[in-house]
Amino acid sequence: MSDILHLNVSVAHGIRTRKYTCLTYPPRKPEAGIGGSMARKSLVGVVADELLDRIIEGEFPPGSTVPGEHELSARHEVSRMTVREAMKTLQAQRILSVERGRGTFVNPLSRWASLEAVLRAASEGKNDADASIQLIELRRMLETGACELAAGRIAEEEITSLFNYISAMKAAHSINDVAAFVEADLAFHDVILHASGNVFVSVLFEPLHRVLENRRTETSAVPEIQEHAIGHHQNIAEALQSRDSVRSREAMDAHMQQTLDDLKHLVLETK
Hints:
Blueprint: E1 5-13, E2 16-24, H1 43-56, H2 69-76, H3 80-92, E3 96-99, E4 103-106, H4 115-124, H5 128-151, H6 156-174, H7 178-195, H8 199-205, H9 209-219, H10 223-241, H11 245-267
Antiparallel strand pairs: 1-2, 3-4
Helix pairs in contact: 1-3, 2-3, 4-5, 4-9, 5-7, 5-10, 5-11, 6-7, 6-10, 7-9, 10-11
């Protein structure tokens, strides 16, 4: 656990600032991909990226055709060869499919093979409700198992850190500091993922971080949801402290169910 850092989390509380010493983990550098830095992208990557943006924004919904090589070449002021290679990039990721004699069509999101593109669609796209629900479903599958594993592997300092993050969440809730609440919430779950001792769990969750932060900010803006989250985080921390794997799994599962219920009834129904 040499990569664990100690972090002082400060949350303003009235005229005082409370500090909580917690564990945190250094972020991984994002992998290169279609959503990576624009600085070193080739023209092919730029054209593919901008076309993906237009697809995600709903300009070209699933089943629709995308513009031909000539139109895209003129729009981006690049050669038709560059456009052709950009289209091949999106075809390889199964975002586009070519039907000979008919044109190039946008595939449904369920067929896309690029995790980076799917995450971008989830965080920036128009189909917000479905993406939010499916993200919780994914979290439920992974985090309940991670919590079960963590019960037998978590260190004492990590348990202390969990309770300190809960204290930070309570302090942030008391002054409606959504950003501080979300930061402590995400960090709480991050400790459990690392405590599971399974390297694949952390690797799988790393690309989700930006999407999770966006979603948490939306839901945590509701004070009632904050209250529910604090109670469930307390139950999870106590279950892990007991080293009971079944209880820990059930506590995390209950939290995921409450999160789903809150999303449906306190966020989506009010839009």
